[in-house]
């Protein structure tokens, strides 16, 4: 078995020098990565002896993959358009039979669609805010949805389409905002009860057999999962008070008008247990693999409501929520990235399982 691999990091890169194509929303491509993030990922992967290169996940990707023939791809590609863009690269890699990290096609496709995701969670009794999808914008509002409501694009991330006008207080504002989302973002508007409480994000790493392939089996609990310390987003002091908007997400960590990042969050053990339990359930119900970050907010009674899951969480060192969570418990960026690599590689038969003491080493 090969010990050192040729790893292709697949991503969509932001190019701030190029004007955006016509007809796309003002915050289009905000989920794309900066080249510095790719450099950091590559440096981390190389610390364990692998060689790396970066391939832009654009229309040339299939040809580049055929030419380069990587042993495995480290996938953080957001994809290009369509109704499930985050699933495009995994689908291509499945078709070509090339190993890759993280979630597969279904999880990446469904999780981008917040409405479908919530339907699956609701069916399995995970607490979500009451919601309704508006496709045309003039659908009658269901009685269970009481103002104030929150309106966002059904299939975006990184706070795209979310600003302070997302909170609507009456019929007129609701119709205007829903129509705006449908027209500008060319997709359904998801309307939810506004959740006025605290906001948390919960990171999960692992799999039932993670201990067998990780360089740090001690990170993982008996069930094979690592729960990162919970990060609270103190949005009260941000440029957009109370909402973690696109504008707030674009701020560097630290300045006065940026959201506060508190990790570990100051919460009672009971709430902590609930948040971690819901995040793991959210992860498992969507067939997410190896790594995810689930956003949860409290409703007016203080009960957690799961908002959405990120199956391709940002991995910019000292900036992305998951990296801040890892850092808060002393996990180095390099070690986090390498565990995502090895958990992925193990699924493709690229790693021998390690010998563990009998009581912890049993494969489930
Ligand atoms: N129902 C709601 N009530 C109150 N605030 C909400 C609600 N839904 C979303 N928000 C706010 O809007 C932000 C963005 O929403 P959400 O997490 O669903 O979208 P996102 O853009 O996909 O996020 P990410 O950057 O994590 O991918 C949340 O972090 C939260 O602050
Ligand atoms: Mg979110």
Care to describe what's here?
With 364 residues, this protein is of the alpha+beta class. The chain has three domains: 6-101, Rossmann fold (3-Layer(aba) Sandwich); 130-193, ATP-grasp fold, A domain (Dna Ligase, domain 1, 2-Layer Sandwich); 199-361, 2-Layer Sandwich (D-amino Acid Aminotransferase, Chain A, domain 1), CATH 3.30.470. Helix content is 30%, strand content 18%. The chain contains eleven helices and 13 strands. The radius of gyration is 20 Å and the shape is globular. The two termini are 24 Å apart. The structure holds adenosine-5'-triphosphate and magnesium ion. Magnesium ion (MG) is lined by residues 295, 308.
CATH superfamily of the largest domain: ATP-grasp fold, B domain
Query: What is the tally of helical segments?
Result: 11
Strand percent estimate: 15-25%
* Cα gyration radius (Å): 20 Å
Count the E strands: 13
Q: What general outline do the C-alpha atoms trace?
A: globular
The main pleated sheet reads as:
6 strands, antiparallel
CATH topology of the largest domain: D-amino Acid Aminotransferase, Chain A, domain 1
Small-molecule components bound: adenosine-5'-triphosphate, magnesium ion
- The number of distinct structural domains comes to 3
Low-confidence stretches: none
- CATH architecture descriptor of the largest domain: 2-Layer Sandwich
Please tell me the overall pLDDT: 93
Oligomeric form of this entry?
single chain
């Amino acid at each position: 078995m090969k010990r050192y691999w040729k790893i292709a990091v697949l991503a969509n890169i932001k190019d701030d020098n190029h004007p955006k194509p016509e007809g796309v929303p003002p915050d289009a491509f905000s989920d794309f990565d900066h080249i510095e993030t790719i450099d950091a990922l590559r440096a981390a992967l190389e610390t364990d002896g692998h060689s790396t290169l970066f391939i832009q996940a654009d229309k040339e990707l299939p040809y580049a993959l055929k030419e380069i023939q990587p042993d495995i791809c480290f996938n953080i590609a957001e994809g290009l358009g369509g109704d499930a863009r985050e699933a495009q690269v995994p689908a291509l890699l499945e078709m070509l039979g090339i190993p890759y990290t993280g979630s597969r096609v279904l999880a990446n496709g469904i999780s981008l669609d917040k409405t479908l995701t919530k339907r699956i969670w609701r069916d399995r009794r995970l607490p979500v805010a009451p919601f309704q999808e508006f496709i045309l914008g003039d659908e009658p509002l269901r009685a269970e949805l009481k103002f104030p409501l929150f309106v966002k694009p059904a299939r975006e991330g990184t706070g795209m389409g979310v600003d302070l006008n997302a909170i609507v207080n009456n019929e007129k504002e609701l119709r205007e905002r829903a129509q705006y989302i449908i027209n500008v973002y060319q997709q359904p508007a998801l309307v939810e009860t506004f959740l006025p409480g605290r906001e948390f994000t919960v990171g999960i790493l692992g799999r039932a057999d993670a201990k067998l392939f990780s360089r740090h089996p001690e990170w993982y609990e008996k069930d094979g999962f690592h729960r990162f310390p919970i990060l609270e987003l103190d949005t009260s002091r941000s440029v957009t008070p109370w909402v973690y908007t696109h504008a707030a997400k674009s701020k560097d960590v630290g300045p006065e008008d940026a959201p506060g990042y508190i990790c570990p969050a100051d919460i009672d053990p009971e709430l902590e247990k609930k948040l971690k339990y819901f995040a793991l359930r959210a992860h498992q119900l969507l067939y997410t693999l190896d790594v995810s970050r689930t956003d949860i907010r409290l409703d007016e009674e203080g009960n957690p409501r799961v908002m959405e899951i990120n199956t391709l969480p940002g991995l910019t060192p000292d900036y992305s929520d998951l990296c801040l969570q890892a850092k808060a418990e002393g996990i180095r960026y390099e070690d986090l990235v390498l565990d995502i690599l090895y958990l992925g590689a193990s699924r493709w038969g690229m790693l021998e399982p390690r010998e563990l003491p009998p009581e912890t080493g049993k494969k489930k």
